[in-house]
Fold Serine/threonine-protein kinase Doa isoform X9.
Amino acid sequence: MANLDARWALMGQGTPPSNIGASSTMPNRQQQSSWWPSQSPSAVAAAAADTSWVAGWRLPQTCQQPPIIGNEHDVRTSDNIDIETNRIDVTPESENSTSESPRPPSVEDDEDGHLVYRSGDILANRYKVLATLGEGTFGKVVKVKDMQMDHVMALKIIKNVEKYREAAKLEINALEKIALKDPECQHLCVKMLDWFDYHGHMCIAFEMLGLSVFDFLRDNNYQPYPLDHVRHMGYQLCYAVKFLHDTKLTHTDLKPENILFVDSDYDIAYNNKKRIDVRRVKRTDIRLIDFGSATFDHEHHSTIVSTRHYRAPEVILELGWAQPCDVWSIGCILFELYLGITLFQTHDNREHLAMMERILGTIPHRMARKTKTKYFYHGKLDWDEKSSGGRYVRDNCKPLHRYLLSEDKDHVLLFNLIEKMLEYEPTQRITLKDALSHPFFDALPASQRLPDVRATGDNSVPTHERSHSLSR
């Protein structure tokens, strides 16, 4: 791997690399319709079997509080097939709509297991349906009004399907443990307000939030976030996930779709260089969502976790995983926020590993020898660089440091942090405690810094504690 520590020390010497542009970057999610046909044969062949790119939703913005809860990971699985949800546009109905349902609330399911409902339905004698915010494989997220508390929230309605119902129970337990450890939500995890079983549909009520950082990026034509935004969001993300790790919990599905702005209202500024209008979010406060795949240290660890693009090498190589796999995902996320493109754009394990080697250097011999997967031959990645797939990786990937947009100090510091997060060996990967002390965050304004709460044995949730309502 290129030594960014050396680049840091030698900063200011040499000629800065040219800024990367659309023509020099690897294809990414926003370009799927145009780049997919030209993707490498190995990736195209694998795409049907591995739908691990879990898509986000485009949630509508409102004049007041934006809606919540974009895309959620569906269910923890023990095989290497991920579940893909569709990105959809949704149009909310007015909260004061007069088109009330003339019938009793539905207890009917459609053929896929979704609850059939209409605007005006009242669920559990309390929650009035206002609009559909989004839909995924696991179920739907609905804007509702709490008739008792007289305020609006988002209700996640899980399909009446056993595997999704059980996954929802796991998420509820994780959220209950998080609330027990952090009742005031100081550690930036989404707040669960209520949960109930509605005729076989597990329902979870959440606070209202804004767009996900991915949805905002997409709606902004994939113009990357300013560096100060990347710094604040990255700091909060490290802070939130460190809290989970201190609570002996691994999120396992960190990605831009699972990071939501508290408020995604924005200003518009004209970019003279690109000659386009660019949205700039007013507040970069975020919340972490989707704990459906979260795993406590003492629990069974499924073989495959994480959405494809953010999956750590030890997961792909089936070497076992722990909390460092979250750190790898954060490194990929910081890269994506900084550049507006996905670092590892692939749907094939072997190609994914080849991209890693092209960007980060050779995979350690120890990991290559220990894995029982068939991706290596005599300790080296079995990859034909002269094949069409090899040419695809060579043409669309480059060493990490060459993605720098500037040789300015703050840019180099960011890439130094990313490099430490993308260390192959999990035991050598930077911890989030050390990441929060990295010089990249030194420039963070005092107003954006969070309390230095260090979890100790007295503050941690007991590893084997059980909820009275649901047992894991």
Confidence is low (pLDDT under 50) at residues 6-28, 30-102, 454-472. The chain is about 25% helix and 15% strand. The longest helix spans residues 162-181. The radius of gyration is 22 Å.
